[in-house]
Structure formats: structure tokens, C-alpha cells
Amino acid sequence: MMLLTRRYYFSASHRLHSAELSEEANTELYGKCNNPYGHGHDYEVEVTVNGPVNRETGRVVDLEELDGLVQQMVTGPMEHRNLNEEVLEFQHLVPTTENLNIIIDRRLRAAWPSAFPESVPSLERVRIYETARNIFETGPFKPNEIQSSR
Amino acid sequence: MLITKRVEFSASHICRNAQLSDEENRRLFGAAANPHGHGHNYILDVTLQGEPDPVTGMVMDLKELKEILQRDVLDPMDHRFLNHEVPPFDRVIPTAENVAMEIWKRLSRSISGGLAKLYSVRLYETQDLYVEYFGAE
Fold first, then answer.
1. DSSP character string of A74-106
2. Does B92 contact A at CB distance below 8 Å?
3. Record: fold of B2-133
4. Which of A14, A124, A149, B13 could form a disulfide with B82 if both were Cys (CB 3.0 to 4.6 A apart)?
5. In degrees rounded to 5, what are phi and psi of residue B82?
6. Using CA of residue A143, residue A106, residue A147, residue A76, what is the dihedral sign?
7. Tens digits of per-residue pLDDT, A114-130?
8. By the 8 A CB rule, do B134 and B120 touch?
9. At what angle do helices A63-70 and A97-115 cross, to 10 degrees?
């Protein structure tokens, strides 16, 4: 089995606040991340693909194709954006990095067949570094239904 | 239990397929198709799987692993031009994928028979691109 991982970067702001909780409960739960003005991170996203090595190219994946897909679905729409205000999925979903991970995974999987017919290579995992110390990852399984904000 | 040893080497390479046009090579490999070559500081993580030996408490003597890596990988590849000096890259394109597979091939010959078996070879070409090879099956 051969896996290839490519790392991408984007910076964005967000605010963690659940409409289903009281002000006090939000403050208690999210602490500084509940600041009404929001705050930002330099996110790092690792996209890992799984596939055979093509004999002609010696590659598992056409990197230009992968870069284009990630640019179109993730870094393009999210770079220097406010996730709560400007990324559709977060209008009713708290943009924790868990949820961001699931959304990025879902966006890539939805567009995957257009870039990689018959899923060669397949999408193996998506890992996000919110900071150097907070790391999230989804694997080669269908992301579970999101239970909104709780 | 998995144990990992990391080593680094620097080498130059060219990624191009002689059977394709210049234009196709440039599209496939980008700047890496430059016929004069370019280099990377490769980082190699070699992971072994096994249980600690009841007497020594070690999965494998890391000194021995270091010597194997030195002989099989670093001596032949460090500060070399892979396409010109390290077979089979005179005929196999030295993409990160192919270099990782070649390293696996060399190490799997040297790491066998003991308690530890080769689990994976992870090769970073840059901070933003790495491959992991787990063998043929």
C-alpha cells in the first residue's frame, strides 16, 4: 500500500458559539474561543491519498489535479475568510475544528470523482492542525451525520 | 509495538519520462522535470513492528538499525544524483514513491529473520509532501 500526503495552508477566523446554549454556558464551554469578535488560526491541512504507483509517471496521484481540487473546494473558499459568516456550512454549525475537518472531508469526497474517476487514487484521510498542539483527523470512512452543535 | 528511526539525506534528482514530450513532462512533474536536476533534504522514517525481547527490552537494537540504514540508504544515496549514480534510478523515475519503494526493497532484505519486521517507510521529500509505503500487499 502506498500513501501520499500533501500539506496545504490557509488562515481563517472563527467564533465558537452554540445557538442552543445560553450565554453563560457558551462562555463556560468555549472560553476565549467564544469572544464575540472571533479570532483566527493558521490552519494546516494534510490530505492523504491511497493508490497504486503509475508505471509511466512513478506517481500515486497527479499533484496538479490534487492541488487544483483542494484549491477549488477548500483553500480557495476558506483562505482569509470568517468561517461563521462566509462558509455556507457554518451558518448553523459551530466551526470547531472537528466540524471543519468533517466539512473539508465531505467537500473533498463530493468533488473527488470529478478529479479522480473510479477513485484512483482514493481519499485516505484528512488531518487538520488548528495549532501545532491541536490536531484532528478523519479516516477512510464516511463521516458520521453531524449532530448539529452538540 | 512500533518503533521508528529517523535519518536524513540530501540528494538531487530529475523527474521526467523520456517517452513523454517536454510539455507533458512539465505538466506532470512541474519544475521537477528540469533536465539539469534539483535537490531535496529527504527525511526518512523507518518503522519496525515487533515485541520487546524479554532479555534486552528492545524490539531491535537501534545501533544495528542505524548501521543498516547507513549501509543500505545513506552511503549509496546521500549527496548523490539519484538518476546518474543510484540504480535503478537510471531507468526508474526517482519520484518520492519510487524512492520509498526502493528503500523498502533494500531494507526488507536486511531486516528479516529477527523479532522485528519492517512495517513502513515514510519519506518526506519536503515538509509539504511525503509518502508512506507499507509493502506490496
1. IIHHHTTEEHHHHSGGGGSS---HHHHHHHHHH
2. yes
3. Tetrahydropterin Synthase; Chain A (3.30.479)
4. B13
5. -55, -45
6. positive
7. 999 988 999 999 999 99
8. yes
9. 130
**Cβ distance of A7 and B131 shorter than 8 Å:** no
This complex has an ipTM of 0.88
Confidence check: pLDDT of A148 > 50: no
Distance from CA of B91 to the nearest CA of A (A): 11
CA distances from A105 to A23, A125, B131 (A): 31, 8, 20
* SS3 of residue B78 by DSSP: coil
Over the stretch A38-49, which tens digit does the pLDDT of each residue have? 999 999 999 999
Q: Is B103 on the interface with A (CB under 8 A)?
A: no
Report the predicted TM-score, pTM, of the whole model to 2 decimal places: 0.89
Domains delineated in chain A = 3-138 (3.30.479.10)
Contact B134 A56 (CB under 8 A): no
